[in-house]
């Protein structure tokens, strides 16, 4: 909790600092534009400069939330840069509109940064050439009023600033691409984890439906009075499977901005230690084996959720495998204990491996593999194998406080 509060405070501080920097930048840009207009008034070229600065400031300062869809980054960068080049050409060919101020240069540098960072690759190059050329060529407006050497002295620092700005824009573009890849990978990993959860839930319930259906078929001709509890169990398992699919698909559905809807955690299927009792009770049912859950008093209730979720998955997969591969089991024992800083999760059955399950319903053998990856990711270990006399045992050791580096 302290770490979360510290992170929130840090993010708030960064946001305030960025807001302050943005405010200072906007103020400086507006003051430089005002200086340009004063210079233009002195030179008698107010209206062309006013038009150019209006286009540039609108392209730079228009809030993104209010920006129309047609005002793309390439249009924002190209139009003011093109207007600046037109002004340079007219001033070069005639003796009119010879004016240049720091505001125009600052606006074009901002648009160069925007174009290089946000435009598509081909347009980014075109906007960089257009805006950079407009900045470097601006001193040519005074080609016959000053010596060529003086014009070069003006052009060299402008070219240097143009190169630095383009380099910064390219660096920020690389950071944006890396962040986009990281976000995509995070979303993909989250979706794969949700898909695995959906598989676990549905496989568990559907296997139970199959077993109880087989039992109902055998009881249909001899024990009519015991059919109702079995059919009720089938109905409950089917409802749980459908509910699991509905909730998981709802979480996977993308929001309006193309991001996963991960805000539905409150509606996700329960997968912690408090849900184990219900899982065990539903597994036994009226026709299943006797299942006993033993939870030692040493097991705390505030274990990290990833540890509890992994323990739940271990028990769920082990019980599913009992149905699939040990239908003759009469007793199943589920035990939780805390020893040496590790949560011990044990599931034992007394089956001998006999199963009437169809081959297609026996699974592909990847359940234990997925559990091993989940447990190993937390720094734990998983053992699965036959017991000394008969039956099967699954033992997971999970660090009580999660993975420690």
Report on the structure:
This protein has 405 residues and is an alpha+beta fold. Among the domains are: 17-145, no CATH class; 271-405, Heat Shock Protein 90 (2-Layer Sandwich), CATH 3.30.565. Helices cover 62% and strands 9% of the residues. It has helices spanning 2-43, 46-61, 73-93, 102-118, 121-137, 148-219, 227-252, 276-284, 305-325, 367-377; strands at residues 290-295, 331-339, 342-349, 381-386, 392-399. Helix 6 (148-219) crosses helix 9. The longest helix has 72 residues, at 148-219.
Alpha plus pi helix count: 10
Helix/strand order: HHHHHHHHEHEEHEE
What's the rounded overall pLDDT mean? 77
CATH topology call of the domain at 271-405 = Heat Shock Protein 90
Oligomer: single chain
Distance from N terminus to C terminus (CA atoms, Å) equals: 20 Å
Secondary structure class reads alpha+beta
From the alpha carbons, calculate the radius of gyration and give it in angstroms: 35 Å
Taken from the alpha-carbon principal axes, the silhouette is: rod-shaped
Order of the strands making up the biggest sheet: 1-2-3-5-4
> For this structure, what is the CATH homologous superfamily of the domain at 271-405?
Histidine kinase-like ATPase, C-terminal domain
Give the SSE map.
Blueprint: H1 2-43, H2 46-61, H3 73-93, H4 102-118, H5 121-137, H6 148-219, H7 227-252, H8 276-284, E1 290-295, H9 305-325, E2 331-339, E3 342-349, H10 367-377, E4 381-386, E5 392-399
Parallel strand pairs: 1-2
Antiparallel strand pairs: 2-3, 3-5, 4-5
């Amino acid at each position: 909790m302290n770490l979360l509060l510290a992170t929130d405070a840090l993010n708030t501080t960064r946001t305030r600092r960025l807001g302050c920097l943005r405010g200072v930048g906007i103020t400086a840009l507006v003051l430089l534009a005002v200086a340009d207009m004063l210079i233009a008034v002195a030179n008698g070229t107010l209206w062309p400069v006013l038009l150019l600065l209006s286009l540039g400031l609108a392209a730079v300062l228009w809030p993104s939330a209010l920006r129309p869809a047609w005002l793309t980054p390439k249009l924002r960068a190209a139009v003011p840069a093109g207007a600046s080049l037109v002004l340079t050409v007219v001033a070069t060919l005639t003796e009119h509109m010879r004016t240049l101020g720091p505001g125009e240069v600052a606006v074009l540098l901002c648009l160069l940064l925007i174009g290089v960072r946000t435009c598509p690759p081909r347009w980014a190059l075109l906007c960089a050439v257009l805006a950079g050329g407009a900045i470097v060529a601006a001193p040519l407006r005074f080609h016959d009023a000053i010596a060529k050497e003086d014009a070069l002295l003006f052009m060299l620092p402008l070219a240097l600033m143009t190169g630095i700005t383009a380099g910064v824009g390219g660096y920020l573009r690389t950071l944006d691409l890396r962040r986009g890849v990281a976000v995509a990978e995070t979303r993909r990993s989250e979706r794969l984890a949700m898909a695995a959860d959906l598989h676990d839930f549905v496989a568990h319930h559907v296997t139970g439906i199959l077993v109880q259906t087989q039992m109902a078929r055998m009881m249909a001709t001899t024990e009519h009075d015991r059919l109702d509890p079995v059919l009720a169990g089938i109905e409950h398992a089917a409802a749980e499977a459908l509910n699991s699919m509905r909730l998981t698909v709802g979480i996977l559905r993308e929001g309006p901005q193309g991001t996963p809807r991960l805000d539905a955690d409150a509606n996700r299927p329960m997968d912690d230690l408090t849900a184990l009792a219900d899982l065990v009770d539903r597994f036994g049912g009226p026709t299943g084996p006797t299942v006993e859950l033993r939870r030692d008093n040493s097991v705390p209730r505030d274990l990290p959720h990833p540890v509890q979720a992994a323990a739940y998955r271990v028990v769920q997969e082990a019980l599913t495998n009992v149905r699939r591969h040990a239908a003759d089991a009469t007793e199943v024992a589920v035990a939780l204990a805390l020893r040496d800083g590790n949560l011990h999760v044990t599931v034992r059955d007394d089956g001998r491996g006999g199963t009437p399950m169809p081959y297609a319903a026996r699974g592909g053998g990847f359940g234990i593999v997925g559990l091993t990856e989940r447990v190993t990711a937390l720094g734990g270990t998983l053992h699965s194998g036959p017991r000394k006399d008969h039956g099967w045992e699954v033992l997971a050791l999970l660090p009580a406080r999660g993975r420690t580096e």
